């Protein structure tokens, strides 16, 4: 799973090697210790619009040519609970989210970091998001299905 906008700008990803970390503690993209897997197919969300300035439906699945071997440092993605489990009382766990990746660590920073970064975010309301982007991007979070991150610093 990845961001759809990356697959649009990097259409050449298909058939190229994508690094999947297979060693515990791997936190550097340039370590040379990752197993390489080939991307066979890119499937973008049908509602994704590459020319839009929002990130609505900005998600894609990468079908790999070979299977991933799961081990301690390589696990399947966590999915949200089923509808029946969602009705439990809200807790801190349900109001936080984590973002993990090798992307840019500063606004307008063109070269992504080679160190794995992590950010714990508090999930805010749509009003919080719209207030935070006033004067920058207009109203960008009126749509259903998007979350608002209130945190701005990571490690």
From TrEMBL:
UniProt keyword GTP-binding, yes or no: no
Per its UniProt record, what InterPro entries does this chain match? Peptidase_S1_PA, Peptidase_S1_PA_chymotrypsin, Ser/Thr_Proteases_Immune/Dev, Trypsin_dom
Q: Where is region (Disordered) located?
A: 80-112
Cross-referenced PROSITE patterns: TRYPSIN_DOM (PS50240)
So which domain of life are we looking at? Eukaryota
SUPFAM superfamilies linked to this entry: Trypsin-like serine proteases
Q: Where is the Peptidase S1 domain?
A: 1-155
One family name in Pfam for this protein: Trypsin
What processes does the entry annotate via GO biological process terms? proteolysis
Q: Could you tell me the keywords of this UniProt record?
A: Disulfide bond
Q: Which GO MF terms does the UniProt record name? A: serine-type endopeptidase activity
Q: Which family does it belong to?
A: Belongs to the peptidase S1 family. CLIP subfamily.
Question: In its UniProt entry, what is this protein called?
Answer: Peptidase S1 domain-containing protein
């Amino acid at each position: 799973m990845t961001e759809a906008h990356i697959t649009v700008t990097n259409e050449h990803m298909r058939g190229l090697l994508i690094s999947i970390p297979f060693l515990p503690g791997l936190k550097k993209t340039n370590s040379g210790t990752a197993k390489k897997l080939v991307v066979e197919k890119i499937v973008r969300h049908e509602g994704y619009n590459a020319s839009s300035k929002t990130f609505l439906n900005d998600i894609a699945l990468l079908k790999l040519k070979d299977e991933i071997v799961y081990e301690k440092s390589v696990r399947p993605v966590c999915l949200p609970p089923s509808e029946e489990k969602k009705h439990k009382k809200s807790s801190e766990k349900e109001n936080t989210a984590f973002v993990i990746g090798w992307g840019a660590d500063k606004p307008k920073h063109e070269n992504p970091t080679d160190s794995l970064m992590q950010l714990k975010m508090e999930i805010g309301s749509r009003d919080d998001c719209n207030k935070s982007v006033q004067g920058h991007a207009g109203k960008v979070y009126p749509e259903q299905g998007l979350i608002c991150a209130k945190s701005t610093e990571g490690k």
